[in-house]
Amino acid sequence: MSAPFYKYDFFGFETGLLIAFIIGILFGFTLERAGFSSSRKLALQFYFRDMTVLKVMFSAIVTAMIGVLLLNLADILDISKIYLNPTFLGPQIGGGVVMGIGFVIGGYCPGTSLVASAIGKIDGFFYIAGALVGMVVFAEIYPLIADFTQSGGMGDATLGNWLGLKPGIVAFLIIIMALAMFAGSEVLEKRFGGQVAAGGNGALANASEPVEEPAPAE
Question: Can you give the pTM of this predicted structure?
Answer without folding.
Answer: 0.74
